[in-house]
Amino acid sequence: xLQQVVAGSAIVALAAAEPDSGDDLxxxxxxxxxxxxxxxxxxxxxxxxxxxxxTHLLITARTSGNPADTDGISLFLVDLDRxxxxxxxxxxxxxxxxxxxxxxxxxxxxxxxxxxxxxRPAWPSLEQAxxxxxxxxxxxxxxxxxxxxxxxxxxxxxxQQFGQPIGSFQALQHxxxxxxxxxxxxxxxxxxxxxxxxxxxxxxxxxxxxxxxxTIGRAARFIGQxxxxxxxxxxxxxxxxxxxxxxxxxxxxxxxxSTDYHLARFAELTRPxxxxx
Length: 277
Prior knowledge:
Number of strands: 9
Structural class: alpha+beta
Number of domains: 2
CATH superfamily of the largest domain: Butyryl-CoA Dehydrogenase, subunit A, domain 3
CATH topology of the largest domain: Butyryl-CoA Dehydrogenase, subunit A, domain 3
């Protein structure tokens, strides 16, 4: 499977979020029960990015434990080319014009292809993959904010009002400086992620990722909204890139955990006694 992903012949989409889980992927109510040699999955998933384009789905389901337990979470690979019965997919476009889908698993039957053996816990790998995904979109967001700020400064130098460029107005200059400060804070937090992403201590990785995602989410909202406002009505048109960047920055605030989720996670990680060392 990994060879197919690397070669580009397979596209795997993760289906982990549920209607009642919010950003907490540990809260899994989708169940996987044994029936003879098969696994039978029942439940629902929401906002599975790229699912309409995927050749395979990677679905989280609970094989044991309570809804918030991490030990009972398992991952199941579904081959969509075989049109599995019991899987219903509703596809749609997101605000940044990508593809996603909501899924209903109504007795989805998956044959066991390997001899029975002790299943490895899925949560540690899922949590690490999510942190690495958050780091990737954080880097994308910083790059997008640099472009948005540069376009905004250039537009303010060009746009004339009262016989002079609007960029000469001190109030607008102050606003662009505030945008620049937010951008530099976001870039600094991204370096924190890069330095801690491969740390052997999961706490250090989580600390860096959540600190950066919360900081960058705040900056993306501030810079995106101010860029559109400084562009005026032109910022909402399809012709200028600024509106498209704004939509993407808005979506990035929620990918791999929202700004609020990572802020709460950071608070939990930094409370007294939270670090195992």
